[in-house]
Specification:
Length: about 325
């Protein structure tokens, strides 16, 4: 798994797209962390609480783990329930070189971790993907807690947190997403097959347009002077075009971003200088330098991704978009 840590925003993420495992941890308060896990096609949420000097407890949907120890080494035990099957977890975590590197060993699980990666193997007959993600989240919490910003890190004042909640089938719109703290709201309303009216509200400005996906691997947003494309080329997705922005300076901003497919289920991520977004069917979260990518750009990206998700329903969901 590759590991990415944003020290200024106090969060970390580990993922292995091939193994379909992902864990994300973000500090919400001192000694308290929110947890988001992906295992195969399923998502889980939980929280980690730290008590004392080195005791961590993870609880959530099917998650009951505790981690405690001393001198940088820990023991993790508890249980993880996934698809009706409960896995008992008993693993040792021993410190290697620094606060971010560990050996993790136990029945069915062997991992080696550092600041940038988590490598190893697990026995799927005795250790589920969700259990691997849960153990990983505890290790990420330690990284977040002990992380120190380096000179290359953007300061928190440069980056703004965004967490758009996607709500399908809500009222007038077919689907909508909003983050009131980031002051962004995006709504789509289906008008024809593979075509949606779009409304993007950013702060005090509002723009209306249309998103279409008439071609299998090409989706287009037209709204005022905005023309943004989401296209797949040889298995790689790109978002390109221009976005109309409000305020002083140029009225349009050019956009060229790589949109990386995660699990092939409508989830993606963008990880480039000035913008880091994690996208699934329930939310779009991350952080953005709004001096580089204003809210209008995030709104336009959100409209394209939501249209794609509506046109391609989640195969694991019993519900289809209208």
């Amino acid at each position: 798994m590759s590991v990415r840590q944003n020290v200024s925003m106090k969060e970390a993420q580990a993922d292995d797209w091939g193994a379909r495992i992902e864990a994300r941890v973000r500090e919400t308060f001192k000694d308290s962390y929110s947890v988001s896990l992906r295992a195969d096609m399923d998502s889980s949420w939980g929280s980690i609480r730290k008590s004392g000097s080195s005791h961590y407890s993870l609880s959530g949907s099917g998650l009951f783990l505790s981690m405690s120890g001393s001198n940088g080494s820990y023991f993790i035990n508890g249980s993880v329930t996934d698809k009706g099957k409960t896995v008992q977890v008993n693993v040792n975590v021993s410190k290697r070189f620094d606060d971010n590197s560990f050996n993790v060993s136990g029945f069915g699980l062997h991992l080696y971790t550092d600041k940038n990666s988590i490598n190893g193997n697990y026995d799927p007959d005795s250790f589920s993907r969700k259990a691997v993600a849960a153990v990983t989240s505890l290790l990420l919490a330690v990284q977040v807690e002990k992380g120190k910003p380096g000179p290359e890190e953007k300061s928190a004042s440069d980056m703004q947190r965004v967490w758009l909640t996607i709500r399908p089938d809500s009222g007038w719109n077919t689907v909508e997403a909003d983050d009131p703290f980031f002051r962004l709201e995006v709504g789509l309303r289906k008008i024809f097959d593979r075509e949606y009216d779009a409304e993007i509200e950013t702060g005090n400005s509002r723009i209306s347009g249309r998103v279409s996906g008439f071609f299998t691997r090409r989706y287009e947003l037209r709204a005022g002077k905005t023309r943004l494309l989401m296209e797949e080329w040889a298995g790689n997705w790109e978002i390109t075009g221009k976005v109309e922005v409000d305020g002083p300076g140029p009225g349009e901003i050019g956009v060229k971003l790589e949109l990386r497919d995660r699990f092939g289920d409508g989830s993606f991520y963008i990880w480039e200088d000035g913008i880091r977004l994690n996208i699934d069917r329930n939310s779009i979260s991350g952080e953005v330098d709004t001096n580089v990518y204003p809210r209008e750009v995030i709104g336009a990206i959100t409209a394209l991704v939501m249209a794609y998700q509506q046109i391609h329903p989640d195969p694991a969901s019993p519900h289809n978009p209208r």
